[in-house]
Amino acid sequence: MRAIVMEAYGPPSVLRPEDVPAPAERAGWVTVRLTASALNWHDVLVRRGQYASPLPHVPGADGAGTLTDTGEPVVVLPSLSWGEGDAAPDGGWEILGDHRPGTYAEMVTVPAECAVPRPPGLSLAQAAALPLVGVTTFRALFSRGRLTAGESLLVLGASGGVATMAVSLAAAAGARVVVTSGDPRKIDAARELGAADWIEAARALTPRLAGFDLALDSVGRWAESVRCLTPGGRCVVLGASAAQHAPLPVRPFYFGQYELISTTMGSPRDMAGLLRFLDDHTVTPPVVDRTFPLAQAALAHEHLEAGTGFGKIVLMHD
User: Fold this and answer.
1) Where are the beta strands (DSSP E) in the chain?
2) Strand duo 195-196 + 94-95: pairing
3) How far is CA 98 from CA 49, 53, 95, 132, 249, in A?
4) Which InterPro entries would you find in this protein's record (predicted)?
5) Is 213 left (phi over 0), alpha (psi -120 to 50) or beta?
6) Topology agreement, domain 2-130+286-316 and domain 135-262
């Protein structure tokens, strides 16, 4: 089968199309014939060697396609071997595409619980863009962040997949959403999903200037996020794209009665919750910024790293 293989860590140019063996069958796992694969910033870190993936390696966490045995349309949940606990994954948990061959290929093998029915009404590109950001954001907002209707939400970064998904889900749940961005065009695009304008004084956009009930920080600006919260507010952190370290003044934090909540990815139960949410609410589909043929994965990575897009980038399999 055709796949995108990296023989070394490095720039996008290390991603090259090659012929590789089809995945072997194994008990309790299923094989998905992929029609589309979505990019995530996580894939860039894999390509750079952040997770010490074995070489040669096929990256990719997100995908949509059909089961090879039944033909059922599915999307791939990239959260493997989460376990039975909901507070955190078990020790054997891993992300698809880290140490196992991922979705930049014509076929991929995953545990049966990680091939879930494709939600109706989504294009192939939208379906491929859903699983990682969808389950990650659903868990961050609801399973961990406990967001409810009528609350206010601050989303840091208007353009990424998590941010655009957060705006869509939170607005559908009846929350008031404000996003941050340095690019007015991205603010305009986020507003169409249900977000209000972001201005320098974010707290001025909240009732009585009291601050936000919940902040979703996927960039690593904890101190700034906490300062935007109302007393007793929650900050869910799930990324570090802008900062690897986050100094946080201790006394203001505990006097404010704030919560700092960490999360990443999600369990099959979180994914089931997301699918029920999509059934019960009118949610804007995942925003697809641009599609590329699978063979042009290197160009797709260049576009992702340029940071000029809004929404997800998807590889289409011809």
Assistant:
1) 2-6, 15-19, 29-38, 64-67, 73-76, 79-80, 94-95, 107-111, 115-117, 152-156, 176-180, 195-196, 212-217, 229-237, 259-262, 288-293, 312-316
2) unpaired
3) 10, 6, 6, 14, 34
4) ADH-like_C, ADH-like_N, ER, GroES-like_sf, NAD(P)-bd_dom_sf, Zinc_ADH-like
5) alpha
6) yes
Whole-number pLDDT of residue 154: 93
DSSP class of residue 191 equals: H
How far apart CA 264 and CA 64 sit, in angstroms, is 21
- 135-262: CATH number: 3.90.180.10
Fill in the amino acid letter for 104.
Y
Q: Where are the domains of the chain?
A: 2-130+286-316, 135-262
Mean pLDDT of the region 243-252: 88
Return the amino acid letter for 95: I
Q: Looking at the structure, give the CATH architecture of the domain made up of residues 2-130+286-316.
A: Alpha-Beta Complex (3.90)
Confidence of residue 279 (pLDDT cuts 50, 70, 90): very high
Which has the closest alpha carbon to 104: 282, 265, 306, 315? Answer: 315
**What's the pLDDT tens digit per position in 93-132?**
999 999 999 999 999 999 999 999 999 999 999 999 999 9
With H, G, I as helix, E, B as strand and everything else as coil, classify residue 38: strand
C-alpha span between 142 and 122 (Å, rounded): 23
